[in-house]
Amino acid sequence: MTANAHSLTKSAHPAAIAYHPGDGTIWFVTPDAEFGSFTPSGLYESQLFAPMQTGRKTRTLALAGGLAWTYATDSEAGYVVTCTAEGAYTDRKKLEPATAVAMAVGADNHGAQRVVCTREGRRDLVLADSGKVATSKPHTHPLYGLAIGTKTPATYWLSCPEAKTVVSYDAATGKFDGSPVTLPDDVVPQHLAITETGGDFLWIATHQSTILRHDLHDGSFLPVDTGKVVDRLFPMADGSLWFTMPSAGAVGYVLPGRTEAKYVPFDSDTRPSGIAADGHGALWVGLEGTSEMASLSKYRMTVLSGEDQSAPVGGTFPDRLSVRVTALDGTGHQGATVTFTVRDDQARFPGDKATATATTGTDGRATSPSLTARKAGPKPCDVVAEWKDEGLLVPFNGITVRPEAGPVDHLVYLSGAGQSSLPGEDFPAPLRVRAVDAFGTPVPKVDVAFRVTDDTVSFSGSATAVVRSGTDGEVESPVLTAGDEAGRAVVEMWPTKAAAGLVVHEYVHDPVD
User: Fold this and answer.
1) Whole-angstrom distance, CA of residue 280 vs CA of residue 313
2) Can you tell me the distance from the alpha carbon of 320 to that of 38, in angstroms, rounded to the nearest whole number?
3) First-residue to last-residue Cα distance in the chain
4) Are 164 and 183 in contact (CB under 8 A)?
5) In b/e form, how buried is each residue of 130-150, taking b as 16+ CB within 10 angstroms?
6) Mean pLDDT of residues grouped by 10 in the chain (513 residues)?
7) SS3 call for 186
8) Which residues contact 443 (CB under 8 A, 6 or more apart)?
9) d(Cα 71, Cα 485) in Å, to the nearest integer?
10) C-alpha angle with apex 125: 124 to 130, nearest 5 degrees?
11) Which residues contact 198 (CB under 8 A, 6 or more apart)?
12) Quick one: CA torsion of 99, 251, 307, 383, rounded to 10 degrees?
């Protein structure tokens, strides 16, 4: 038994699954063309409906018009089959005995809902609704993968492995696009999916361990390494892409805005076959090999800030650690208790503690206290955020502790240049700089000299001043006062133990009558 998994009645093997928002159930179909449903809450009950005919095979499922649809085949023919919520089967159409590859719900030329299906080796589409079943005019090459977006449901995207292209079909005209999408690197396209949040992307599974993300606006391609060959693709409302990897006993995903794939492993014999999100945002996986439905967390946690930063020993990291917890639809989740943990001895939270907790707000964000560098190490700090109630954990990458600051090397300008004043009056703000070493680490307790080059301005009547840097390496000049004459003043600043300095200008203006 897989953790968080629920056995299906009569050891039913789910070959494909889909969520039915009307009754809140997850429908499935078995390889033997038997429909069934599963309740993703409470007692997690399931039922399996006996078909009218036996000896049929299928791997496709779609829900439309209050019916469950599949395309089943036997040795003699193919059949468009529907099933009601009560388990009543109907053969809608008898066609050629070509195995169905993909099935999706789109719109016809009038905007009405339609089920679309591709079949192995066939160049035409099966187009079905509650009233009739038809086939499209044939394409020049056999069709395989199928994807239909919600923004343009009358446009069907189809892969052509033989031609190594992707083509679209326009339901309004009943024609295939004459300008197919040519894929890079001689890729053989397989299953397809479309995500429409954070950009409109067509995802293309390939015959290799790579998925292509094709931007439908600028035409660009981005390869995503998946490690193993991917089977079916499943887009989610938040813009994430999920996919099954039956041979690896895992499902994978690519988060919105990310370019790397991650994985959720199951047992090697589970053979994940389908993925669906229920009405509460929980993600469910059909496990064909073990006759189960497995749940994944209905939440996701992502890093917002805190990665790729450094601090010297004893210093404070510039950015606090921050994560966001969201439901699968992308909305923030309030009230999650997130624990931030430093799992080595290189850094600590206030009180010299290795852990700190924070609760997510209305936007789903949780932010840690400041993090202090404690000990330099050969590797980045091992820091994670965890929501233990849901078993969610994310690492923070690239947090490094540098050795203590070296000798002062130069100044970094902060503020105060380019001000103006009237003769005899103080300038609005002092000059502020930071003393740093050659690597940009703030250097405390070093002397910084300030000097004016003429009588246009002064430091309380003096042309020079020396100020010692604070614990953060910052230095603030004494009050700068304008002289009696209008003009441009030049102020030089440098660490007394280093040659590199800064030059800024201040301005004295004549009074306006």
Assistant:
1) 46
2) 43
3) 89
4) yes
5) beebebbeebebbbbbbbbbe
6) 78 97 95 97 91 95 97 97 96 96 97 97 96 95 98 97 96 94 91 95 96 96 95 93 94 89 88 91 91 86 93 90 84 94 96 97 97 91 92 89 85 94 93 88 90 90 93 91 91 90 92 64
7) helix
8) 405, 406, 407, 408, 435, 436, 437, 469, 473
9) 91
10) 145
11) 239, 256, 257
12) -170
CB atoms within 10 A of CB 92: 20
Question: What is the distance between the alpha carbons of residues 233 and 511, in angstroms, rounded to a whole number?
Answer: 72
The two structure tokens encoding residue 342: 């430093």
SS3 246: helix
- DSSP code of residue 110: T
Q: Rg of the chain's alpha carbons, rounded to an integer?
A: 32
Q: What is the pLDDT of residue 78?
A: 97
Quick one: how far is CA 47 from the chain centroid?
Answer: 35
Cα–Cα distance measured from residue 70 to residue 58, given in angstroms and rounded to the nearest whole number: 7
Closest CA to 342 of 362, 314, 300, 370: 370
Per the structure block, which two tokens stand in for 55? 């000896």
The whole-angstrom separation of Cα 464 and Cα 461 is 9
Q: Tokens for 398?
A: 């690239």
Give the separation between CA 284 and CA 24, rounded to whole angstroms.
Answer: 13
Rounded to an integer, what distance in angstroms lies between the CA atom of residue 147 and that of residue 234? 10
Count CB neighbours of 151 within 10 A: 9
Helices (runs of H) and strands (runs of E) counted in the chain: 0, 50
Asked whether the beta carbons of 328 and 380 are under 8 A apart, the reply is no
What pLDDT was estimated at residue 1?
Answer: 38
How high is the pLDDT of residue 328? 60
Please say whether the beta carbons of 217 and 176 come within 8 A. no
- What's the CA gap between 508 and 510, in Å, rounded? 7
Structure tokens at 34: 């038997």
**Judging by DSSP bridges, how do beta strands 181-182 and 175-176 pair with one another?**
unpaired
Q: How far apart are alpha carbons 482 and 343 in whole angstroms?
A: 55
* Tokens read off for 159: 């892969």
* pTM score: 0.65
Task: Give the span between the Cα atoms of 127 and 112, in whole angstroms.
Answer: 12
Amino acid identity of residue 464, one-letter, is: T
Q: Which tokens sit at 290?
A: 């073990």
202 within 8 A of 147, measured Cβ to Cβ: yes
Asked whether the beta carbons of 355 and 347 are under 8 A apart, the reply is no
Q: For residue 70, what are its two tokens?
A: 């599949």
The single-letter code of the amino acid at 282 is: A
CA nearest to 214, candidates 233, 227, 228? 233
Matching residue, tokens 């001689």: 186
Q: Nearest-CA neighbor of 198 among 330, 90, 74, 328?
A: 330
